[in-house]
Design brief:
Blueprint: E1 6-11, H1 13-30, E2 37-42, H2 46-53, E3 61-68, E4 81-84, E5 94-102, H3 106-117, E6 122-130, E7 143-147, E8 153-154, E9 170-173, H4 175-178
Parallel strand pairs: 2-3, 2-5, 5-6, 6-7
Antiparallel strand pairs: 1-9, 3-4, 8-9
Helix pairs in contact: 1-2
Bound molecules: inosinic acid.
């Protein structure tokens, strides 16, 4: 049903599973003795973080933050708001931020600075998608699933107007979907 709105698939479900396995295994090796706190940025992180942490066979904690930078459209508005904060204490912790996509880098930068200010021992970023052509703030995620061109994508957590997050792959919408209103 949702598939009829998709012009092309960019990252298939099979590829996402391979990415989660590769990055999860790597993170598990590197954070084996650190009891990391994996922080997901809602809501986009949900599918990828879920798959990723199942591939990390080490002791860890998870927590979530809701930080918004986009307001239902396809353009970055630039203003960022913390809607939900962490429950966990971050002082002295090794933190892995899990993201669906890094575009301008603004969201990640704000969250990284906040966690460091609160005394995190280390903060690294794992993202399913990286869109370096969209970068405004200097941010280099340490763990990247796949680099994509500057194109608006949906699926596997990524939305257009809060929809399509539940697609099991990442794809590009048909232009008619944007031009509906
Ligand atoms: P940044 O602050 O510009 O790096 O934006 C990160 C957030 O913007 C992501 O967590 C997404 O919610 C949203 N975003 C950026 N690019 C896309 C896209 O292509 N599709 C859907 N959401 C996007």
């Amino acid at each position: 049903m949702l598939e009829k709105d998709i012009e092309k698939v960019i990252v298939s479900n099979e590829d996402i599973n391979k990415i989660a396995k590769r990055l999860g295994t790597q993170l598990a090796e590197e954070y084996r003795d650190q009891f990391p706190l994996v922080v997901g940025l809602l809501k986009g992180c949900v599918p990828f973080m879920g798959t990723l942490i199942q591939n990390m066979d080490i002791p860890m904690e998870i927590d979530f933050m809701d930080v918004s930078s986009y307001h239902g459209g396809i353009e970055s508005s630039g203003d960022i708001k913390i809607n939900k904060d962490l429950d966990a204490q971050v002082k002295g912790r090794d933190i892995i931020i899990a993201e669906d996509i890094v575009d301008t880098g603004r969201t990640i930068k704000v969250v990284m600075d906040l966690l460091k200010y609160r005394g995190a021992k280390s903060v690294s970023v794992v993202t399913l998608l990286d869109k370096p052509a969209g970068r405004i703030v200097e941010i280099d995620p340490e763990y990247i699933g796949v680099t994509i061109p500057k194109e608006f994508v949906v699926g596997y957590g990524l939305d257009y107007d809060e929809q399509y997050r539940n697609l099991p792959y990442v794809g590009v919408l048909k232009p008619k979907v944007y031009n509906k209103e």
